[in-house]
Amino acid sequence: MKKIDTPAKQSLSTRRKFLGNAAAGTAGAALALPMIATAQAPTQLRFQSTWPSKDIFHEYAGDFAKKVNDMTGGELKIEVLPAGSVVPAFGLLDAVSKGTLDGGHGVMGYNYGKQSAIALWTSGPVFGMDANMVLAWHKYGGGKELLVKLYSSIGANVVSFLTGPMPTQPLGWFKKPITKKDDLKGLKFRTNGLAIDLFTAMGAAVNALPGGEIVPAMDRGLLDGAEFNNATSDRLLGFPDVSKVCMLQSFHQSSEQFEITFNKTKYDALPAKMKAIIDNAVEAASADMSWKAIDRYSKDYGELQSKDGVKFYKTPDALLQEQLKIWDEVVAKKGADNPLFREVEKSQRAFAARAMKWDMDTNNPRRMAYNHYFGRKA
Question: Which single residue of 97, 113, 232, 320 could bond 300 by disulfide (Cβ 3.0 to 4.6 Å)?
């Protein structure tokens, strides 16, 4: 007679079979473990800025790095060191090009000595355009392609991204107000880029220094005056400790922006996904920087007056007109034997002719609204 298992025995048999299969599966998984790929280590890039760690500009560099690090989920990690950590501020481009650094955060004017056309992005009136318009020209008006051509001409092994539109920079910090061109004659003054040629032509004795060295030089009497950039940077770097007079408005650097560079060999080796993230992080950082600048610069502009005793003066229109006149002479001389210089200037002029007309015809006069609400006279 055939033996019939009871439900209890069937259940026990089923459990034994399941446990046996599970054990076999576990053993199989254990054998397969060595074949499972481990998580790939993050790609690490070492950057340096051209700014002291206390400057808001170095903060902007860190903001960009954090955006990349966050957007890649940690797959790409950028570390940003302050100026001088690896190379001096003015040595950044060479260090990135050679691969001593993987990248950097600075301004193109610091590379003016390699090819004067580089400084056309950052120096002068740029036909009246503000920095955001210059960035528009760079991306959509041919500037980006011209910069690739320019860097190729000097053998720079870099990939460049422009970011962060800066507001018009002050004429500078002085011992007393500057009222006319003659006040600049013989003045020991700090600036950079093509502004060196402009202030030299106006009679100043110019010395190009990186940001962290300016205030110590003024304190020791090596400089009579200097410009750097904005209320926050100037305050953090200690300008009000060595001067109580700041002249606002100037055409020497009315439309500067930052430059983020990557060593081209390192950048080209990155996956397409990483390159796309970097491209978008640059633009996200640019927008965030412009918003942060409005908040921070306006606060520090007020505190420079209320807490630090700084007196701000508007640069006289006659002096601004003189700057424009001399600037035309400077660029004519620089472009005489430099075809790339002339090509960049021609491209900027064509873009500015239509962009400036649209801007001035379209946008409201902001001072009218300010005077209406806050009672300030023009």
Answer: 232
Distance in Å from the first CA to the final CA of the chain? 115
pTM of the model: 0.87
Contacts of 58 (CB under 8 A, 6+ apart): 49, 51, 52, 80, 82, 83, 105
CATH 3.40.190.170, the chain: domain bounds: 43-165+255-295, 172-252+310-362
- Round to whole Å and give the CA distance between 141 and 135: 9
Residue-wise pLDDT for 200-248, tens only, equals 999 999 999 998 999 999 999 999 999 999 999 999 999 999 999 999 9
218: three-class secondary structure by DSSP: helix
Q: Which CATH architecture has domain 43-165+255-295?
A: 3-Layer(aba) Sandwich (3.40)
User: Angle at CA 336, nearest 5°, toward 206 and 198?
Assistant: 20
Low-confidence ranges of the chain (pLDDT < 50): 1-38, 378
Q: What is the pLDDT of residues 306-335, one digit of tens each?
A: 999 999 999 999 999 999 999 999 999 999
Query: How many whole angstroms separate alpha carbon 309 and alpha carbon 305?
Result: 5
Q: Are 193 and 123 in contact (CB under 8 A)?
A: yes
- Cα–Cα distances in angstroms (integers) from residue 124 to residues 49, 128, 326, 327, in the given order: 23, 9, 10, 7
DSSP 111: G
Q: Give the H/E segment covering residue 9.
A: helix 7-32
SS (H, E, C) 312-327: EEECCHHHHHHHHHHH
Q: Which residues contact 119 (CB under 8 A, 6 or more apart)?
A: 108, 109, 111, 112, 193, 194
What was the pLDDT predicted at 342?
Answer: 97
Number of other CB atoms surrounding residue 336 within 10 Å: 9
Q: Which CATH number fits domain 172-252+310-362: 3.40.630.30, 3.40.47.10, 3.40.1550.20, 3.40.190.170?
A: 3.40.190.170
